[in-house]
Amino acid sequence: MTKKTYDSDVAFIQALAELLRENDLTELQVKRDYGEDDSLNVRVSRMQPAPAQNYAAPPAPGYGAPMAPAAPAPAAEMAEDPASHPGAVTSPMVGTVYMQGEPGSPPFIRVGQQVSEGDTLLIVEAMKTMNHIPAPRAGTVKRILIEDGAPVEYGAPLVILE
């Protein structure tokens, strides 16, 4: 590889890293072909900070009342990944979670509560639209994995139903 190609590759990788940062992405992968037997495969990723434990996220302005943190789960449950639990209900979108329908009203669910299929578990606000997240099946709420007003990613575990 020539010095010129090396310099352009470094500039290319720096540009990818900048795209990653500017667009708040966690990973970016690109393949650049120079010819039949010459290519550059680049994967740029960054670590996300671990979520802080045992604090209540402030609710969005004018929406939601602060809630008491959920009771801590037994140590055996904390060791496993909640997303891999067979009863995990995951977020179908990126947004902000709300545990009640309007400020001052009781939350939709509590730990230990029985729910029926289709009952609203919580709301995920995405693009100014309130999306009710229904229970995919009947069961008991074993764990609530998010706080009221917290941001969530697509596929993030929200609740454990058993």
TrEMBL record:
Domain Lipoyl-binding: start-end pairs: 86-162
One GO biological process term: fatty acid biosynthetic process
GO cellular component: acetyl-CoA carboxylase complex
Region (Disordered): 52-91
Membrane keyword on record: no
Highest taxon of the lineage: Bacteria
This protein's UniProt keywords: Biotin, Fatty acid biosynthesis, Fatty acid metabolism, Lipid biosynthesis, Lipid metabolism
One Pfam family this sequence matches: Biotin_lipoyl
GO molecular function terms noted in the UniProt entry: acetyl-CoA carboxylase activity
UniProt-listed PROSITE patterns: BIOTIN, BIOTINYL_LIPOYL
Low complexity bias (residue ranges): 52-77
Signal peptide segment: none
The protein's annotated pathway: Lipid metabolism; fatty acid biosynthesis
Cross-referenced InterPro entries: AcCoA_biotinCC, Biotin_BS, Biotin_Carboxyl_Carrier/Decarb, Biotin_lipoyl, Single_hybrid_motif
Job description of the protein: This protein is a component of the acetyl coenzyme A carboxylase complex; first, biotin carboxylase catalyzes the carboxylation of the carrier protein and then the transcarboxylase transfers the carboxyl group to form malonyl-CoA.
Protein name per the record: Biotin carboxyl carrier protein of acetyl-CoA carboxylase
Organism this protein belongs to: Puniceibacterium antarcticum
